[in-house]
Amino acid sequence: AGMGRTLVELFYDVVSPYSWLGFEVLCRYQHIWNIDLRFRPAFLGGIMQSTGNKPPAMLPKRAQYMLKDIKRMAKYYQVPVTISEDDFQRVLGKSSLGAMRFITAIDMTQPKYLEPLSREFWIRFWSQHEDISQLESILAVAEQAGLSSELTQKLLEMISSPAVKNRLKETTEEAIKYGAFGMPAVVAHFNGKPHLFFGSDRLELLASVIGEKWLGPVPS
Question: Does 200 participate in catalysis according to the annotation?
C-alpha cells in the first residue's frame, strides 16, 4: 500500500450479481478515494459450503424480491445487470469454479487484465445471460477482454495446476477468516485492523469508516 493509502480488498465471484455492482462502484472510486484497491477472486461455492449459507434464490420470497431489487440497483448503479426467474436455475445449475480459476491464473500472471477480464465474465453471465462454465465460453470472454490467444492458452494450461487451485482455495479461506459468509465481501484495512463490509450497498458505510466522501454510486 502507498503512503497513507487504505488497502481495500474486494473478494468476489462472477456468479454473484451483487459482486458486479460492488466491483463497478469500487472501480469508479479507486482514483477518487485514497485507497489501494485489490481484487481478490474467490469461490462463492466454497464460502457457502463452509459457512452453511444458501443462495438467496432458495427462499421464494427472497427470490421474488431479488428480481425487483436487481432491476432497481442496476438502474441506480448504472451497471447493465439484468435478472429473470430463469437465472435462478441457471446459477444453481452451473459452477463458476473454472471461470474463477481462469481469473485467478490471470491474477498470478498478468494482473493488469484482472479488471477487464472479470467484467467481461459478468457481462456475459449477467447481461447477455450466456454460459460461463464451458471452455468455449471462457475462450470467448478472454478474447473480449483483449487477451492474446497465446496468453489464453497459457492460462488454460494453468487452471488445472495445483498452484492455481491452491491460490483460489487460499483466497476463499482468507475471505472466510475475515468473516465473509457471502459476496461481495469488502475488507478495508484501517487503523491497524480489518473491517468487513458485506454486499454492494455498504460502500457508503465503508467511506464513513475510512474517512472518505461518499458521492453516490456514480461519482462524476
Answer: no
Q: How would you write 94-151 as a 3-class SS string?
A: CCCHHHHHHHHHHHHHCHHHHHHHHHHHHHHHHHCCCCCCCHHHHHHHHHHCCCCHHH
Question: Do 126 and 91 contact (CB within 8 A), yes or no?
Answer: no
Domain that holds residue 204: 6-210
Q: In the chain, what percentage of residues exceed pLDDT 70?
A: 99
- The grid coordinates of residue 39 equal 481484487
Domain assignment of residue 78, yes or no: yes
Cα gap 131→125, rounded to integer Å? 6
Residues 6+ apart with CB under 8 A from 143: 149, 152
Task: Classify residue 216: in a domain, yes or no.
Answer: no
Identify the CATH number of the domain in which residue 25 sits: 3.40.30.10
Mean pLDDT throughout 9-19?
A: 97
- Residues near 148 by Cβ (< 8 Å), separated by ≥ 6? none
pLDDT in tens, 188-214: 999 999 999 999 999 999 999 999 999
Over the Cα atoms of the chain, what is R_g? 17
**Domain tally for the chain?**
1
The pLDDT value recorded for residue 220 is 81
Look over the chain and give the mean of its residue pLDDT values, rounded to a whole number: 95
